[in-house]
Amino acid sequence: MGAQIELVLYVGALGLLAVGAAGLVMSANLFRMILALVIAEAGANLLLVLAGYRWDAVAPILAGQPADVPMVDPVPQAMVLTAIVIGVGVQALALAMAVRIYRAYGTLDFSEVRRRMEADIAAETGIELPGSRDEPAGARPLPPPGANPMLTPEEGR
Amino acid sequence: MRNLASLVFAAGLGFFLTVLLLQFGFGEPPMIVGQAIQDGAAETVGAANFVTSVVLAYRGIDTLGELSILFAAAAAAGLALGSRRPAPAAGEDAGFILRAGSDLLFPLLLVVGLYIILHGHLTPGGGFQGGVILAAAFFIPVLARPSRGLRHSTLSLVEGFAGAGFIVIGLMALLWDGQFLQPLLGTGTLGSLVSAGTLPMLYLAVGLKVGAELAGLLVHLMAREEGEA
Lengths: 157, 229
Fold this sequence. Notes:
The complex is a heterodimer. By secondary structure, chain A is an all-alpha fold. Chain A has two domains: 1-56 and 71-107, Orthogonal Bundle (Helix Hairpins), CATH 1.10.287.3510; 109-147, no CATH class. Chain A has five helices and no strands. In chain A, helix 1 (2-26) packs antiparallel against helix 2 and helix 2 (30-51) runs antiparallel to helix 3 (74-105). Chain A starts with a helix and ends with a helix. Chain B is globular. The longest helix of chain B has 30 residues, at 199-228. The chains are: A mainly alpha, B mainly alpha. At the A-B interface, helix 1, helix 2 and helix 3 of A face helix 1, helix 2, helix 3, helix 4 and helix 8 of B.
């Protein structure tokens, strides 16, 4: 019985971490990447709490039980408490950046955003675009200063 | 091809972590700090909730650092979103159900949030959790009536005073006892509301700061979304 619970908890924590990591590298949409980051964070927090678990122990709060009852380790719980709050801050910052990117480029597709960003930087600074293995050099259109021709009308709105 | 590589990466990460975890026995924490804290925290700090003792007494400076991280993230998010429109354009008020629900929920959430903050040293909960509930309490009415909004100046005032209060309590301890953020005012009776010295005050400061910061963030995100349309 105990071994089963152990297995479920570990598989849950590691699975959340692995799913988050896979989503982080596989998804093309920036918003989905942020969501994958949230999932991976949940897995990491669960793993940290599990690290402080102890068999037959109570929560680390004195509530009238005899003094020699074992308690789970309070230090990982305190760390997870802080990690969750920092995670919220990081997610809010990432969302703000995503909103900003959407306003600038009209899309959240990662490769598309990167391509346009590189083109913008190249147009702004006069540095040549770095070579890409996907496209032959010279095939990419450079945007004229001011307007972005790659926005279709409905994207540009 | 790229998806396959990503899957292999994720599976490898999971395998690596599994192998690492198998080195530890489950249910037998390898750390000895936890046991030492359980033996001594009730006498030295006086908080019934040992997690609170760790967060505010043993690792108080870390909590201050974490508050500054949260502040930096909120400030950076505000900077990234910009605020050229000080008063968000008057959106339509929500329907009757949402308005009535928000009117009902506001006092309840306020009470629950303050309760969780003030009992942080006795029961599960504390400044961070209660602060999030306070943020929800102040944000739900904004969702129901976007035209009324939430004043940023008030929020930053609350946030600044709460953060300054945390540091001032720490500095008072520095003058009094020679150590920054050392708990003051004695331990009191274990388990009563007025106990654990300055810890409830510190948690109140944390709760107000977290609540103001999160509410400000949410309002900021919402205001830009309206500017979008």
